[in-house]
Structures are given as C-alpha cells and as structure tokens.
C-alpha cells in the first residue's frame, strides 16, 4: 500500500506532528482548568496534576463519572481477562502466589513461559 519506505516515514512524521499538537492543546486546556479552579493565573501545571485535572475535566464538562464506570469493569474479571490475553499473545502462564503485600487487595503472580 505504501509502495516505498519514504511514504511510510512521511506519513509517520505527519501523524506525529498532529498527535503532538493535539496533546499540547489538551495540556493547555487542563492548565487553564487548574488556573480557573485555583483563581491564580501564575500557577504552573506539573506532570502530577494531569490525572487530577483530567478527571475533573471529565466530570465538569463531559459528565463522566469514573466511579459509575468502575461498576462495569469489576477488578477480578478485568485482571483474569487481561492475563488470558497475555497468555494467548505471548505464551505466558500466570499463577497466583502467596507473598507479603502492603494491602489485602494486592495479589502477586508468578509469570512463566
């Protein structure tokens, strides 16, 4: 389809430029949200702000409730399905093993080929 490696390179460069521009636009929106929330135009936007203000943006502007979505993705089912996909794709085997953990919800798995 591409006919030549140069066509693929050109396509990838254009795609990269679009992705970077869109990412910058989204970060600018989150930075503006932080400034508005804190009522401080001089506040900086740090990497650790992205998750918090991203969730705030979803709730405030798009009415997305992360907690409501979680009901459709129970942890046990998601973990089991994810491990099944890794088993099929990469030929890995997963076995739950007892291990000292910092919280009762944490599970430890041994991974073998």
Quick summary:
By secondary structure, the chain is mostly helical.
Any overview of this molecule?
This protein has 113 residues and is mainly alpha-helical. It folds into 2 domains: 5-64; 75-112, no CATH class. It is built from 4 helices and 2 strands; from the N terminus they run ααααββ. It has helices at 5-38, 49-62, 66-70, 75-90, and strands at residues 93-97, 108-112. The protein has a two-stranded antiparallel ribbon with strand order 1-2. Helix 1 (5-38) crosses helix 2 (49-62). The protein is flat and about 50 Å long. The model has no long low-confidence stretch (mean pLDDT 94).
Feature tags:
113 residues, two-stranded antiparallel ribbon, 2 domains, single chain, 9% strand, mainly alpha, 4 helices
Quote the beta fraction: 5-15%
Report how far apart the termini are: 36 Å
C-alpha geometry: flat
What Rg do the Cα atoms give?
Answer: 21 Å
| Strand line-up across the major sheet | 1-2
Structural class: mainly alpha
The main β sheet shows up as:
2 strands, antiparallel
Helix content: 55-70%
Number of H- or I-type helical stretches = 4
Averaged pLDDT, please? 94
Poorly predicted spans: none
Query: How many distinct domains?
Result: 2
Q: List the helices and strands in order.
A: HHHHEE
Overall strand count: 2
Annotate the secondary structure layout.
Elements: H1 5-38, H2 49-62, H3 66-70, H4 75-90, E1 93-97, E2 108-112
Antiparallel strand pairs: 1-2
Helix pairs in contact: 1-2
